[in-house]
Amino acid sequence: MQTIWAATALLPSGWASNVRIDVDAQGYICDVQAEAPAHGCHVPMLLPAPVNVHSHAFQRAMAGLTERRGPDPSDSFWTWRQLMFRFLDRLTPEHIQAITAFVQMEMLEAGYSASVEFHYLHHQQGGVPYENIAETSDRVLAAADQTGMGLCLLPVHYQYGGCDQRDLTAGQVRFGNTFQQFQTLYDAASTSLKDAPADSAIGVAPHSLRAVGIQDLKAYNTAFPSGPIHMHLAEQRAEVAEVEAHWGARPVTWALANMELDSRWCLIHCTQMTPEETVALARSGAVAGLCPITESSLGDGIFDAVRWLDNDGKFAIGSDSNIRISLSEELRTLDYSQRLRDGTRAALASPDKSTGRRMYDGILHGGARASGRQTGRIEVGCWADLLSLDTSSEHMWGREGDTALDAWIFAGDDRLVTDVWSAGRHMVKGGRHENRTAIVAAYKRVIDKLRDAL
Question: Which of 269, 335, 390, 402 is catalytic?
Answer without folding.
Answer: 269
